[in-house]
Every structure is written in C-alpha cells, then in structure tokens.
Amino acid sequence: MNRLPLWILGLAAILWGLAASAQDHAGTRTALSPDPIVLRFVSWKPDHPQAWNEAIARFTQAHPHISIVREIAPHSSTAYHDLLTQKLKNQDPTVDLFFMDVIWAPEFAAAGWALPLDDLFAPSERARFLPATVEAGTYDGRPFGVPSRIDVGMLYYRQDLLQRYGLTPPQTWEELVRQADLILKGEATTHPLLRGYSGQFKQYEGLVCNMLEFIGSRGGQLLDEERRRSTLATPETLASVQFVRDQMIHRLATRAALTYQEPESLSIFIQGHAVFHRNWPYAWEIANRSTRSAITGKVGVAPLPRFAGGSSTSALGGWLYGISAYSRHPKEAWEFIAFLSSQEMQKFFAIRAGLAPSRSALFTDPEVLAANPQFQDQVAVFQAAAPRPRTPVYPAVSHVLQRYFSRALAFTGLDLEAEAASADRQINRLLQLTEPRA
Amino acid sequence: MTRRILLGLGILLTVVGSLFPFFWFVITSFKSQQEVEAIPPTWLPSGGVGFYRSALVEYHLVDYILNSVVVAGATTLIALAVGIPAAYALARLKLPGKTWIMGGLLSVSMFPQVAIAGPVWQILEGLGGLNTRWGLLLPYITLTLPLVIWILASFFKELPEELEEAARVDGCGVFQTMIRVMVPLAAPGIFTAAILTFIYAWNEFFFALLILTQPEKQTLPVGIALFQGEFSMPWGELAAASVIATLPLVILVICFQRWIVSGLSAGAVKG
Amino acid sequence: MTNRPPSLTSTWSPAMPARGADQAAAWWMLAPALAFTLVFALYPVVDSFVLSLHRIFLGVPALGQPFVGLDNYAVLAADPVARQAFLVTLAFVLLTTVLELLLGLGIALVIHERFSGRGWVRAAALIPWSIPTVVASQMWRYIFNDQYGLANLFLFGDEVARYVPWLAYPGFAFLAIVLADVWKTSSFAGLLILAGLQVIPDDVYDAAKIDGASTWQRFWRITLPLLSPALLLALLFRTMDAFRVFDLVFVMTQGGPGGATQVLQFYGYKALFTEGRMGYGAAISFTVFLAIFLLSLLYIKAMGSKVLQKEAA
C-alpha cells in the first residue's frame, strides 16, 4: 500500500482548500462589518463597460466607504431571470441590488424578494419619470423598482441602401417587405449574404416582445381589456403571427433568426448583412462605433412599421433597479440607486451609451438629443410603448407564449388556430388559478 | 484479409470520430478574433494563446478551476471513505436483507436529478449549505455512492477468503481486517472508483447550477454553460476555456484508461 | 431471486460463523452510506411526491399551499406541453440508446482486438466520455452554428449562401442533440459491452472454427447471444441516463425551437425553478422518476431471467 502517503497528501490538500474557503468567507465578513461596505450589484454584461466603470468610479469617489462589485448574469432576460431568482430563493445575502426586467416587478414583489421603496422613492420623485416605467415597477400600489431607462422596439435601417433605391423608411410592414425584396434583388450578385430583416425570434422572452409588436400594430392584443383572458386565437393576432412566419422567418429574416437573441441579430446588422433591424435604443451607439461596426454613418432609425389600418406598436422594455430583501446594506444600496438614476447620470448614460432615459425632462435636453438623434421626435413612441401582461405568474405565462410563438414560426403546416386556442386555455387557467380570491 | 481491413477501418472511425469534433474546438481556441468570425470558417489558426489569456484572466477561469478541484477532490475522498466500508459489509459480511439494502443503495443511480432537486435544495437551505462548496458535496456524495459501492463490492467478492480468515484467526476485528487485508488487495478497484467519482463530480452541472449562484464559488461546468460576451458569443474564449476544463480529464484518461476499462468490466461482468 | 439488482448474484458466503458482534460492525460500516442515501435521495423523492399533491405558486404566496390530491397529475395528463415533452424524451431515449449500443458494440469489437497502439485507441475512444457534458454541448452548438459552424463548412465549403441554420429547424435541432449524446456516451456503452466480450472463453470460438463456422456466423451465433447480458446492462444504463438528459438541452437549445428539444427533465426544471410552480413541477419530476423506475424494473427482470437461464444451463 505504497499509495497511502499520496492519498493522505491529497486529503490534506483538499481539506486545506475547504478550510481556506471557509476562512475566505470569515475574512469577507469581518471586512464587511463597519467600513468599507461591499455592495453586490447583479446586472448583465454591459454593452458599454467603460461608461459603467466610469459611473461606478464617480460613485465610489463620492462614497469612499462603499465599493461596488458587479455580478454578471446572462444576456437573455429569461436566463437572467432564472439565475437571479435562484439567488433570491437561496436568500443569497451577497446580492444587494439588481436590475430587474420591467415584467418581473409583480413576481418579485409578491414573492417578497424585492424591498418596497415607498419612502425612498417618493411620489414627487416618481412624477419626474415616464409614467409607464414607474407603473411597471409598481405592485399593489407600492413601488418596488426605480426605472433605470426605457426600452422600446425601434426599426433600424440601412440609410445608404434605401437611398440607393430611392426609398424612404417604411410606414407599414407590407411596405417593408416590398422594399426589402427590391433591395435584395438588386444586391443579390454583390452581396449574397444580405438579409431583409434581422430580429429576435429565439424561444425566449425577446420573442414575446417582437411578436407583441407585430400583433399590436394590427390592433391585436395578448390579453383582453380586463387582462383576464388570453386572446391569441383572435383573427388579428393569428394574421400577425402568420405574417411573421411567412414574410419574416421564411423569407426576409431567414430561418436562422429562430436562434437569435439581441446580440446575434445585432451582430448580423453591424456586419452589414441586414437591410432592416429591430432592436432597443442601445443598438444605435454600437452600430455607429467604428471599432465594432462595418456600417457606421449608414444607419437610420424610425418607429416600427404598422399594418395597414393599425398603428405602430413598440414593446415596453427596460430595466428597473431593485433592492434585495436579503441585502445587509439596503441603505447604501439605495444611495447607489439614487445616484445612478439621477438626472445627471441618466444624461451621462444617454450620451455615452445611447440608453434612453426614463426621466421625461431629458427628452428635450439638447445635448442628449445631439448624441442620440434616434430619440428626436420619438417621445410619442416612448410614451405609447405597449406593456406585456402584468401578473406574478408572468414567467409561466411567458413560457406558454414563447412556446406557442416558437412553434408557430418553426413548424410549417401547423394548425395555428388550434395551437393558439390551446395556448389560450393554458394561459387562462394560470390566470384563473392565481387570481387572489375576493 | 477482410477482417484486417475491417479492423483498420474500425480503428480509424473510432479515433477520428472521437477526436475530430473536439479537435475543431482546439483549433478554434488558437484562432484570432477575425478568424473566429470568418465566413466561411478558416482551418489554420494564427492567434496564439490570446484567447487562453483572456479566458483565464477576464473570465476568471482560475476561480472556477480551483472550485472544481476542491469539490471533485473532496467528493472523491468522502465517497470512498463512506463507500468502502459499505461495499465491504455488503460483499463479505452476513447481514439480513442484504440484497434489499444493496438494491436500495443502487437504485439511487437511476433517480432523475429533478426529482430530488427541490427537497435537497430545501434541506441545504435549512443547513445553511446553499452557496457553499460543502453543500454541493452532500448530493454529489449521495449520487456517486452507488457507483463506488457497485464497483467495490464486485472487487471485494472476488478476493480469496483465506487471507481474511487468517487475519481473523490472528485476532483482527472486522474493521481491522478490512483496512489491513482487504483494502490493499482491492486497491485497483478503489482506484477505478476514485477516477470515476472524480470525473462525475468534475462534470456535474444540474446541482451546481442550483446550489452555487455566487460566481466565485461556481464550478467549471456552470462557468462554461453561462459563458457570454459583450456583443456576441465569445467562441474563441469559450473554446479555450473548454480545452482547459477538459485537459485534466484527458490526462486522467490517457494515464489510467487501463484501470477504467478493467474496473468497469469487473463490475459489469457480474451482471 | 427475480427482483435482484444485476450485480448481486452472490454465490459466495462467508465460511465463518456469523457472530453478533460482526453483524453490529457490519451495520456500522453501512450506516454512513445508508444515512446519505436516506436523507439526500430517498426522502427527497418521497417529499417530491407529497409536494406534487399540493398547489403551490412561489410567486403568489397569498394563495397558500392547498392540498389538491392528484389534480396536478390530471392536469399533467392533459397538458399538451407535457405530452410533447414526453414524446420528445421518448424519441430521444429510443434513438440514442439504439445508436449508442450499435456504435458501442463496434467500439468494443475494435478495442477487443489485439493490435499495437491499442492503448491509444482505447484512450481516444474514452475521451468524449470524459469531456464534461456542458463542454460537449457548447462544442456541438458551435459545430452547428449557422455562420461559423463546421457542419456547414463540411457540407457547403465556400458556398456561404447555402449555409443552414441547423438549430433553427425542429427536426435538425433534435437530431443535433441526439448526435451530441451519441458522440459523448457511445464509448461508455462500448466499455460495458467490452466487459462482456472479455469473459467469452476462446475455446468456444476454437470449437466453432473447427466446425467450419465463418467469422460472420461466429459473430451471430456465439458472440451476440453470449453478449446479451452485457448488452442488456448497457441498455439499462443508457436508458436511465437518456431519460435524464438536461445539460445538452440547457446549453444547446433551451428547449427550442418550438419545444422540439424540450425534454421532461428540462420541463420539470422550468416549472420548479423558473416558473415557481412547485406542486406542478414536482408532479412532472415524480412522473419522470416513476417512468425510469418502472422501466428499470422491467430491464432487471429481463436480466434476472437471463441469469437464471445461464445458471440452469
């Protein structure tokens, strides 16, 4: 048994590793006690890391006793949600504050994961923000999130290509299809990789946003007026889904779009491989950054098209700052949030990172508009953005929607009507089961 | 003659089929960013070790590796410490209802993770074991025990009884007999069980995803599954990280393939 | 006899008289293993079942946790998502086990032969099995990428306009997951089959050779029948594992497109851990457990009768 010493060595090393990790823990705890405080902030990998580093540096300069650690969660809102909620279920005390997607506030509030911010986020302060964003963070009349920015779907297009063919940005989806057809035909020999449209159609949360825009711009909805019944099986909604399947997935966007989230679809556009691109406001800055983009200076932006007889609809997105119910430093977390969502910092992010502010006043700020011509004249779009269903069981509702839309787009020859009716039943059941009893 | 051609073909297919897909990832890890994004893809890489550097530094791969080493190593040692006596008792000692106990222990190997994940998670929450490495050890040990016991019991059964009897005549107790006489004899089996347990714990993803949510505690599979970049998938860094995560296992397999094969065979032959 | 697990045909019994002290020692030696198993495996399964009899929405604590009997299972039976997940899982299990047994048999036959460099071939065959599933999943996802993928490069070369977004087609996405699983685990099946090959005595073949049987005949008449216990064991292991596939789906497709790759264990994970439907999620996962359990019993029964036949012969 001459192998024994080796085993003992191994055992000792492992035990040392475990002990060291335990000590690590003790170490951070003592470090936390009076001074300096470490705030852990869960966010996605920022599209503009320098801007974020600078913002955080400004804060820590003013608050030398606080340091900020950013924890990076997945880009996809669905995957992000899974990770963050798992942390909160784990009562992970090292999460102090987080970004939450606008659709999560009801769930986070009802489950007790997010701190209510009644006193901190005072009504007078709330009035300075775009109402839709504040509304998104409110549950049962109490605020749980502070809007960091507003996101709405926008249409990006290749100005140079449209000009070459004497076109102006399309008003309707049908017009978009005609224009794309014309351009693709003309460019076929010089640019075989060019696609007509690039959007987000993978089976995840972004699919719901993309589809909501097509559905809304024909006058359809996801839920009825009382928000009690799902309305996927109505003629307007079915027609929109069919249009996306036949005109987008099977033609302009190509089937590959079924595997794209924001980064992949944007990557296609900035490589110059798409005529039209649907994305949030942040894409403008990236599409015009010469280190990343092959199409700087050739990009135009417009409200999303509509169907004949409908009106342009943009999904309301965006991220709210929330404080974890398990944070040991809610006070400091609030200081950080108040700093980040201040007029000054929102202006900073708008100029440096192209993020659309959630404070109404900034939409008339000349410096903001100079850096972001895409905001010009589009306040109406921002104010009219269409929210997704608000319910604490939104994740379950969204899974049904995602699956239905993905099936509708991916399977050819599917009985759409039956499929939609089945999804309606599942959503109705969820809504009915979780309706608080009177 | 046809037999030799068939064999040659078989060898070729086995080797190429097994290695080529991963080889493509290895090539990718040595490319430059332009080559990774080239359409159509290029064959010859020229990027050097740039992706390895950024994977290790910017993506904190070192932390993940350390966590994986600690978790997989500790799982292996404890699973053996628990599994060896159990296997010995089941293989060599008289016990009422032995087959049932063995059946019960082995049946765990077919439990789907999702069927026990919720309650295991709640137990760990009660014990304060969430987001700790030892918390992850508990399900890992439980889930590797069937494998350890299965392999070792079959090894113990093969050993000659004379040595054991001699030890007993010399006045050794049951436990002493096991430690002094039987364990050294079963060393090859123990070694095999150790390698398989280590590989299991190194590769496990489901429980690690649920139990460890702090990045500095997470293991390699979680790190690699949640890998992401700024604008698009960082395929180059991901390939580099994957190569690093796989390297220890490749070395283990190349050095000890004989043990792995013989150990699994010994267990399986009893079937 | 028939209920015995595979490796338990213990014909050996200690020659020594059983003493009370021995038995006590034996229990002590078993105790830690039993404790782990009871607390972290058996109790959780029972608890999952209890949970599945309640209606629990984590996001709506106001609803309480009412007992609803078997209601969750009734809903599950009528749930079209579950039905699709069940069919996808079943197809996955069937396809992967059959392919893995066939390829595993091939690998086993190759590395059973004696030739120089056999150790290296054996190591090569084991490498896919040792690679973390998560790594293998990322690797295959990259191979099937619509722009940079090896699959497209192989099939279409420079004709980039013909490149196919494999993972965007329900059928191809499903096959991609099957392929990734087959690549990763065929060699494990091969090892188990190899073990069976190694115990077939050479004189059986020699006798057959003298009788004038061809290589082919020897394979069909001798190798395969004598190999059947090992094949059944490999089948059992692979079936149980295939039923539990999760990592591949999580990394490669997240269940899409259109739910074409959503397997039961992934659906259960979604319901439990992302939708917060604890009761319904528990019902899904307990059903997965039951399916595996019943299937294993069936296999073990088949194997038990094989072993009996051998003993009788």
Supply database-style keywords:
heterotrimer, A: 438 residues, alpha/beta, five-stranded mixed β-sheet, 18 helices, C: 313 residues, mainly alpha
List strands and helices in order, with pairings.
The complex is a heterotrimer of chains A (438), B (271) and C (313).
Chain A: H1 4-32, E1 37-44, H2 49-62, E2 66-73, H3 77-89, E3 97-101, H4 105-110, H5 123-126, H6 131-136, E4 138-139, E5 142-143, E6 146-147, E7 151-152, E8 154-158, H7 159-164, H8 173-187, E9 195-198, H9 205-216, H10 235-252, H11 262-270, E10 274-279, H12 283-287, E11 299-302, E12 316-317, E13 319-323, H13 330-340, H14 343-353, H15 366-371, H16 379-383, H17 394-410, H18 416-433
Parallel strand pairs in A: 1-2, 1-3, 9-10
Antiparallel strand pairs in A: 3-13, 4-5, 6-13, 7-12, 8-10, 8-11
Helix pairs in contact in A: 9-10, 9-17, 10-17, 17-18
Chain B: H1 2-29, H2 33-36, H3 50-57, H4 61-92, H5 98-107, H6 113-127, H7 133-158, H8 161-169, H9 174-185, H10 187-203, H11 206-211, H12 220-225, H13 235-269
Helix pairs in contact in B: 1-13, 3-13, 4-7, 4-10, 7-10, 7-13, 8-9, 10-13
Chain C: H1 20-51, H2 71-78, H3 80-112, H4 118-130, H5 133-143, H6 150-156, H7 170-198, H8 202-210, H9 215-243, H10 247-252, H11 264-274, H12 278-312
Helix pairs in contact in C: 1-12, 3-7, 3-9, 4-7, 5-7, 7-9, 9-12, 11-12
Provide a quick synopsis of the model.
The complex is a heterotrimer of chains A (438), B (271) and C (313). Chain A is of the alpha/beta class and 438 residues long.
Please, could you describe this protein's structure?
The complex is a heterotrimer of chains A (438), B (271) and C (313). The model of chain A is unreliable at 22-33 (pLDDT under 50). Chain A is 47% helix and 13% strand. By secondary structure, chain A is an alpha/beta fold. In chain A, the strands form 4 sheets. A 5-stranded mixed beta sheet of chain A has the order 2-1-3-13-6. Chain A has a 4-stranded mixed beta sheet with strand order 9-10-8-11. A two-stranded antiparallel ribbon of chain A has the order 4-5. The mean pLDDT of chain B is 87. Chain C has helices spanning 20-51, 71-78, 80-112, 118-130, 133-143, 150-156, 170-198, 202-210, 215-243, 247-252, 264-274, 278-312. Chain C contains 12 helices and no strands. The two termini of chain C are 17 Å apart. With 313 residues, chain C is an all-alpha fold. The interface between A and B is medium-sized, with 33 and 30 residues.
